[in-house]
Amino acid sequence: MRIADLLERDLSRGIEEIIKVDQADEQSVHAEITEYVATDRIKSQYRDLFRAISEAPSELTEGIGVWISGFFGSGKSSFAKNLGYVLANQTVLGKPASQLFKTQVQDQRISELVDFINIGIPTEVIMFDVSADRAVRDNTERIAEVMYKVLLRKLDYAEDFDIAELEIELEREGRLKAFISKCEEKYQQKWSIIRKGAQKISRVSAVLHEMDSGTYETADSWALSIREKPTDISVTMFVERAFDLCQRRKPDHALVFIIDEVGQYVARSADKIEDLRAVVEQFGKVGKNLLRKKEIKAPAWVMVTSQEKLDEVVAALDSRRVELAKLQDRFKHRIDLAPADIREVASRRVLAKKEEAVPHLKSIYGTHEGLLKAACQLERTHRKSEVTEEDFIQFYP
């Protein structure tokens, strides 16, 4: 009997070596969800998090930060990506992501919580890898600016802050559609292309002059005005704008940010970790106030992944200006994917055996048990070195 005949998995099917939260190819996402292995410990962590999300609208909590840690290859990105697809309940190859996930995980309580969230708390999920996203221009960019740019992209506003401000203002005044129509008519291109082009500022300024010459006396009036005072993105402005724009473009939807590789982004920077803390704190406070006034359905969540635990990130900082207690208050929910999970996940996903293969492997073990025990015996150590029949079947070959 060949090894391929023993395994449940088709060996010709590849396995993604690295899971990327912004990899949206449906075929890849479908494989990631339907092949996901959730250990008992991972299921427990999903249950706790889904419970917190489902209870948050009635609890008026500010604890909306989630820190997901685990070393490279531990599955933290898979955990976060599945979470995002389930909360948004996107369609993957014609099926709801939540249904695929529930079928794979096979946990009654998780299924109940997921159904409750999908029905009662429709969610807009903004998911990106901060170490690779095009919104990150350089290492000096603040996390609020990065998150705002990704939010604008997701909600179909311009990524250029000045043009986005114009879109937002015109939309508020009910003039955005007329502006876009005039712009497309004048330049014979779609607005989505015009607002990204090298001539975008001059062209926008010229159209504003044609629409409202009383305010914009010359064709370059608007262009000159933004040159003198460029848009500044503060934490407070970003958070308030996030709730406002989400209600405009995705009414009655909760907002969730899932940011992959934050630990790498803030590494050894007290300023960056402090900015992150400020963003999570502001989302918690503003969301709680809006929820109390019944202006939103649920608070916004900020979920991040890191190779290091929260306390390890702070310990590695050259400066001690960042207080761990403050950070822990903001990230009330902390999930760490342990090495034990990797052992079980790998053996179940890659090495799971067909039922008819088990008697054959038991026979092999019975024939060679003595040789196996002798070969694997470790001396002068308390570590377990015995290979049991169960171990042999699980990890063969």
Q: Mind explaining what this structure looks like?
A:
By secondary structure, this protein is an alpha/beta fold. It has two domains: 26-149 and 250-340, Rossmann fold (3-Layer(aba) Sandwich), CATH 3.40.50.300; 157-228, no CATH class. Helices cover 56% and strands 8% of the residues. It contains 20 helices and seven strands. It has helices spanning 3-6, 26-34, 40-59, 76-88, 97-105, 108-120, 143-154, 161-172, 176-187, 191-194, 200-211, 221-228, 235-249, 262-266, 270-292, 310-315, 324-330, 339-350, 357-376, 389-395; strands at 65-69, 91-92, 95-96, 123-129, 254-260, 301-306, 333-336. A five-stranded parallel sheet has the order 4-5-6-1-7, with helices on both faces. Strands 2-3 form a two-stranded antiparallel ribbon. Strand 2 and strand 3 form a beta hairpin. The longest helix is centred in the last third of the chain and has 23 residues, at 270-292. The chain is elongated and about 95 Å long. The relative contact order is 0.15.
| Mass-distribution shape | elongated
Number of E strands: 7
**Structural class from helices and strands?**
alpha/beta
The tally of structural domains comes to 2
**Total of DSSP H or I helical runs spanning 4+ residues:** 20
Radius of gyration: 26 Å
CATH architecture of the largest domain: 3-Layer(aba) Sandwich
Summarize the amount of helix as a percent range.
55-70%
Strand order of the largest sheet: 4-5-6-1-7
Q: What percent of residues are in strands?
A: 5-15%
CATH level-3 fold name of the largest domain: Rossmann fold
Distance between the termini: 13 Å
SSE order in H/E notation? HHHEHEEHHEHHHHHHHEHHEHHEHHH
Please summarize the sheet with the most strands.
5 strands, parallel
Name the poorly predicted regions.
none
